[in-house]
Amino acid sequence: MADPTATLAARPDRPALIAFVADGQTEIALRDGLADAASETLDIRRGGIRGAIAAMQKTATPRVLVVDLGDEDEPLGALGALAEVTEPDVAVLVVGSANDLDFYRAVTRGLGAREYLAKPMTRDKVALHFAPIVSGQAISEQSVLGSQVIAVTGARGGCGASTVAVNLAWHFGVHARRHTVLLDPDLHMGVAAFLLNLRPGPGLRLALEAPERIDALLAERAALPAADRLHVLAGHEKLTTDLAYAPGTAAQLIEALRRRFNFIVADVPFRPVPLHRDLLDLANQRVVVMEPTLASVRDALRLLALPATSGQGRRAIVVLNRAGSAGGITRAQVEEALGISIDVAIPNLPRQVTGAATLGEPAIGRHNGLRAAIAELARQAAPVRLQEAMPAATAATARFSLRRILGRAA
Fold first, then answer.
1. Is the Cα dihedral 67, 72, 74, 78 positive or negative?
2. Same domain, 119 and 157
3. CA angle, residues 186, 198, 290, in degrees to nearest 5
4. CATH number for the domain including 186?
5. Residue 385 falls within a domain, yes or no?
């Protein structure tokens, strides 16, 4: 695989460094201490971590991001909020007022910042601890442990799993403004790109057949932009084209995507093929989409019986699509047959869903019931906050695995 430093630096839309400071002394120390390390003119702005959060919602994440906690009352919660709007592989350098070992460990080992320095800041301190990271000398040591992978699978063909996956990805990428990729591994019959009016190329097939092609720039070359923070990685091969899937390639693909995206939503049909099974095993969270029929109940039970992997902390989320449709069994009957409660129910909306598919746009904007159901699915599937405030204690607990998102191994 390509060297992370080279691939990160190769993106033309990605600044080398942006700093957000809260006071003049810190700004001077950064300018003096990083003068020899930075390859570009230093972009240092006022506003502290709150300014960084606001800016990162609108601009490309830099390779290195310096944030000043200033007098922030909830510093761990603020760092958690920052992680939600930055790309996973960013090297975050933190400046703050606290000068104790426990706080240092919480910020670096817990939340995954590359380095933390306590004020007062000096040129020598910045040059010693921040400059090697800014110059790229320490980036190659970084291990990006990844982001949230959500696999959406239909109990049967035609249950609406692709519609759910597309709208869930749209929710993360557009409504919640998280860096998101929608992955459709069905190269012959997949419809994820079609539902968003995109024409996929051969990049995904080439990557799956030749693992050496997979690197951190895969998303830039093969994934199609559907919105500012939503990309689609799919294929559309002839039915006569055989896929020469190399064993273990799915893991390399997911690793590469994790360097770029906070959320990977995979529309994975359940077929007894190695690629689909590997993606189900690699997911942090599985989602089973079913409809209110006895055949769907039978196959949902089979999917729920699949063994979970070590990275899956809970059972699959069950989504009942087309709830209340004419001729279908009731929700209570479905739950009785499954032996568990339905997690999310989506009303039967044939006109809205069909109309959205015809126009190549997400159906989430056409009905409040669908929008609410997808938001609830997002809440259950991943620890994402939809731009609302979160108490510091809750944020610290929820994001203590952020070392994988902010880009440092413990």
1. negative
2. no
3. 45
4. 3.40.50.300
5. no
- Secondary element (H or E) of residue 186: none
Q: What are the φ/ψ torsions at residue 151 (nearest 5 degrees)?
A: -100, 120
- For residue 196, the enclosing domain spans 148-366
Residue 256's pLDDT is 87
DSSP 8-state assignment for residue 139: G
pLDDT in tens, 152-209: 999 999 999 999 999 999 999 999 989 999 999 999 888 998 999 998 888 888 888 8
User: How many domains in the chain?
Assistant: 2
d(CA 170, CA 226): 9
Do 93 and 206 lie in a common domain?
no
Determine if the pTM surpasses 0.85: no
- Whether 126 and 203 map to the same domain: the answer is no
Size of the chain in residues:
410
Q: Is the pLDDT of residue 266 over 90?
A: yes
Q: What is the rounded CA–CA span in Å between residue 196 and residue 189?
A: 15
Which of 165, 195, 234, 194 has its CA nearest to residue 378? 165
